[in-house]
Records
---
Amino acid sequence: MHLEGCRVQEDEESFSVLRKESLGVQIKLGVITREEIIRRKFREFYEKKYRDITYPTRIMEREFGFLVFKEGIMVRHRSFRDYSELQDYIRTTVPSDAYYSTAYYQRPEEEMEKKGWLGTDLCFDIDADHLNTVCKQTHDSWKCLECGKGGFGEAPKKCPKCKGKRFEEKNWFCKDCLQAAKDETIKLIDVLKADFGLPLSKLEACFSGNRGFHIHVEDKGLIGLDQWARKEIVDYLLGSGIDLSHYGIPSEGNKRGNIIMNVDSKTLGWGGRVIKYIYDYLSSADEKKLKEVKGIDGLIVKTILENRESILSELVNKAALKTFEGLNVKTWEDIAESALKANAIKIDTVVTIDIHRLIRLPYTLHRKTGFKVVVIPVEELAAFDPFADAVAFKDGVFKVHVQDVQRFEISKTEYGPYKDEVVELPTAAAMLLLCKGFADPV
Ligand SMILES: [Zn+2]
Ligand SMILES: [Zn+2]
C-alpha cells in the first residue's frame, strides 16, 4: 500500500501528466502566456485571500503537497507549525494546486516509512468523472496525440485507430454533472447517518473546485481504522457481496409461489432500501422505466401494469413479492439485484481505502477551473451552487480568444456559446475558459 501513499487523487495525477504534454504544445505555438496569466491571477487571489486558508485541524501532524506551475511537479512531505506559516507559504510560492494528508503523522515532513502514522480521517470522494452522465457525450472530447483521431466522451484506454495511449483530453463540466455528483453525495450522507449512526455534526462536505465533492469524517474513534476496515466500509456502501437470501429472496429452490421477505421498508440498511426501491419501481407507471431492469420484457411490464395494485398491496401488507405467469421468482430476483445496483453509492473507492491519501486543501484554487475548494456545512449542501458559491475571482473583466465552448453559467449569469471569437468576460468566466484550455489571452 506504500506506493498508493505517494499518490494524489487519481484525476489530479493524470492531470499533471497531461499538463506537461499540453505545455509542450503551448511552447511550440508560442502561447505560453495562458499559463502566465493564470499564475498571475492566482497570485493576486492569494495576496488578498491567503488568510482564509484555515484548514485542516491538527495542522502540525499533517503532510502537505503542492503542484508547481509550469513544471507541473509535485512538492510534497511539507509540514507547517501553524496556519500562518502555511498561508505565507502559499502566498509566496503560489502553487497551481494544494493538498493535505487525511492522515496524521508524528513526523509529516519525513519520507513515508519514517513518518510515524497516527491515524487517518475517514474520507469519501464522489466525482462526476465516475458517474455515467449523458451530458459527457456532448461536452467532453479527446484527441489521440499519435494519429490525431478524436471522439466525444471519455478518452479510450487505447486509440481505436493506432493503439496509442497518449491523448489530449478536453473536459468540460456542466450543471448536470455537478448535480449528479451532489445527489450522490447527499445519498452518501444519508447512509452514513442512518446506517453508520454518524451524527451530521461529524460530517463535513467539501466541493473539490472541479467535478466533485468530498465528505470528511473527523472522529477519534475512526482514525485508527486500517485499510482493511475501510475496505469493509467501501464494500458496504457499494452493496457488494450482499446475499439476497438474507432478506428472504431465494436464489435457488422455491421457484414457485410468492416470495415472503423478512424485511420491510422501515428495516434499516440495505434490506429497507431494496424494498423501497422495489416499491418505487413498481409504483412508477412509466413503461420505459419498467423495462430498464435486466430481464424485464413487454409481457412482464404488461403483467405488472395489470396487477400493480394487488402487487403493491401484498408488498406493503405482507412483505410479499407476488408471482404470476411470467413474473416469477427469477424476475423478482432481477428486480432486487437492480435495486442493489441503483442504490450503490458511487464513491471513488481508492480515496477511502488509502490511509496516506493527499486531498485538496480547502480555500485554495483549482488549476483546472480557477474555482475555490469550498467547505460546505452538510445541511447547506442541497442549496450549494458551485457555479456561484465557489467563484474565486469576483472583480474585473478581461478579453480572451475562445476556441469553442457551449453555453455556461457563472454567478447566475449565462455566457456563450462562443466559437473562434474574442470576447470580454468577467474575470471568473474568462479564468474558467483559460484554465480549462478553451481560450487564450488576447
Ligand atoms: Zn491514434
Ligand atoms: Zn455535464
Note: The radius of gyration is 25 Å.
---
Amino acid sequence: VSEPILVKARAGDYRVHLGPGLLGDLGRILTSEGIRGRLALVSDPDVRAHFGATARGSLTAASFVVHDFDLPPGERAKTMQVAESVCSQLIGNGFTREDCIVALGGGSVGDLAGFVAATYHRGVPLVQVPTTVLAQVDSSIGGKVAVDHPMGKNLIGAFHPPRVVVSDTDTLATLPRRQRWSGLAEVVKVALIADAAFFSSLETELVDFGEGALSAGVVARIVEQAARIKVGVVSEDERESGRRLTLNFGHTIGHAIEATAGYCRLTHGEAVVAGMKGAIAISAQLGALPHEAATRASKLLGRFPLAADVGPLDRASVLATALRDKKADASGLRFIILNAIGQAELTSSLPTRLLEAGIDVALSSLASRPA
Ligand SMILES: NC(=O)c1ccc[n+]([C@@H]2O[C@H](COP(=O)([O-])OP(=O)(O)OC[C@H]3O[C@@H](n4cnc5c(N)ncnc54)[C@H](O)[C@@H]3O)[C@@H](O)[C@H]2O)c1
Ligand SMILES: [Zn+2]
C-alpha cells in the first residue's frame, strides 16, 4: 500500500488514502485522521447492498456510532428536495457540527452528501468514500459539491473539501461495464493534459480496464496515477483560475452534447470522449498539436464503446449551448487545447467556426460508432 496522497486546500490540507481493500480499514483510517463524533453514512441502496456491511462493520469496530441515510441511485440524488430530506433526518437525529457526514458511493452520492455537509449547520466535516472510477479519480478530489436545478446540472453548490478521502479500488470490481468505461474518460483526460508516460501505459491497458480484465493491483495503480494528477492540479490551483481549467479539456463540447442529448441518453464520460475528439481536432487545426500526436490521441479515444442510442443531435443547439456555457467574454471564447500528449493550454480567443468544426467531429464520432 502506497502513502496517502496529500491535497493542499485553503480550508485545510487532506489526504487521499487509495488502494485495494481499504474499506475494511475505514474505521481505523478515520480514527487515525482524527475524525470524531457520530457518522451519517450516506449511500444509495445499490452501493449499500455491495459495501454497506463492510463499511459499517469497520466503522462500528472502531467504536463509531453510525446512522444510515439512503439516497435515490444516480443523478436523481442531486436535488434540493433530497438535500432537504437528508437535512430533516440530520436535525431529527440531533446531528451537530461535532458530527460527520460520510459519502459512500459514486459522484452523485458524493456531490449530494457534500452539498449537505457544506450547508448543514454552516458546514460539518465530510469524508468521501468513492466507489466509482469517476468518483475515485475525479469528483471526490477538489472540494466541489453541488446539486442540480431543473434549469441545469450543478447550478447550486459550494467548495467544501473533505477531511479525508478513502478510495478502495476493489469496489470498482462490481461496477457495470458502462460505468467503468465512463469513468475511464476522465483517466484518459488527465493523461492527455498532464502525463505522456501515463498515456502510453493506457495505450496497452485501457481496453482491459474497461472490460474488467485487469488485476486488482493494476487497477489500483492506474486509478492512483490518475488521482495523483488531479491532486497535483487542484493543489496548485484550488479555485479554478488557471491550471485547474485544463481539467475542463473535452468538457466544453462534452457538456453541450450531454445537455442537448438529455442526461439519461449519454453518460458524462461518453459525452466527454466525444468532446475530447472535437477538442483534439481543434488543437490540430490551430496548429498547436502535431498531426501524429492528434492521430495517437484519437486512436485511443476510438477504443471507447459509445452509446448506440444517442440518435441525431442538432449541431446548432450543441453550438448554442456551448457558447452559452462559455459566456464568451470580451477576450473571446476560452477553450482548452493540447500542445502535445501530456500538455494542455488555455486559448483565449477560439474562432466560432473552429468550435463548430470540433462539434462536427464530436457528433460524427457519436453517430458512427455502434456500441
Ligand atoms: N464534484 C466534482 O468535482 C465532480 C466531478 C465530476 C463529476 N461529478 C458528478 O458525479 C456524478 C456522476 O458520478 P458517477 O459517474 O460516479 O455515477 P453515480 O454516482 O451517478 O453512480 C452511478 C450508478 O453506479 C452505482 N454504483 C456506484 N458504485 C458502484 C459499485 N462500486 N458497484 C456497483 N454499482 C455502483 C450507483 O448506485 C449508481 O446507480 C455526476 O452528477 C457529476 O456531476 C462531480
Ligand atoms: Zn468530467
Note: The CA atoms of residues 107 and 135 lie 5 Å apart.
